Amino acid sequence: MTEIFESAGQALLYGIVGLAVMAVGFVALDLVTPGKLFHVVWRDRNRGAAVLLGSQSIAVGLVIMSAIRASESEEGLGYGLFSTLLYGLAGVLVMTLVGIVIGVLTPGQMGAVALDDGDDRRPHPAAWVQAGMYLGTAVMVGAALS
């Protein structure tokens, strides 16, 4: 029974680290998209912004999952939590940089284009492209951790 509580405690701690990395990811995405992301998604109901935020959340989760798996070592729980935090933040940084680079290489400001729902309220195709980039980057970062 003690092992169950110990494992649950570890899962809680890794969850807290993952939540912190997701919060940093939210802030990073907010910095590279026009407007305040919280308002753009929840108040303005912008579907392109929701696509970006949802895909980035899944991508960060994939990086955290890979980081947790890679953190299993003889060094103990503290080492695992710290390495998961660092790997997760590295993943957010790479995703943000990829978004910025693609934004420079594409016409218009990528964040602004991706948030343009148009008259039909459908997400701009750029939102789906950027979402795919986040997920692809997460897969690459996750593979680097294994």
How would you describe this structure to a colleague?
The protein has 146 residues and is mostly helical. It is built from six helices and no strands. Helix 1 packs parallel to helix 4, helix 3 packs antiparallel against helix 4 and helix 3 runs parallel beside helix 6. The protein is elongated, with a radius of gyration of 17 Å.
Secondary-structure element order, N to C: HHHHHH
Please report which band the strand proportion falls in: under 5%, 5-15%, 15-25%, 25-35%, 35-45% or over 45%: under 5%
Overall geometry: elongated
Total helical elements: 6
What are the low-pLDDT stretches, counting only 5+ consecutive residues below 50? none
Q: Rg from C-alpha positions?
A: 17 Å
Mean pLDDT: 87
Largest sheet properties? none
As a percent range, the share of helical residues equals: over 70%
Count the beta strands: 0
Q: Tell me the distance between the termini.
A: 31 Å
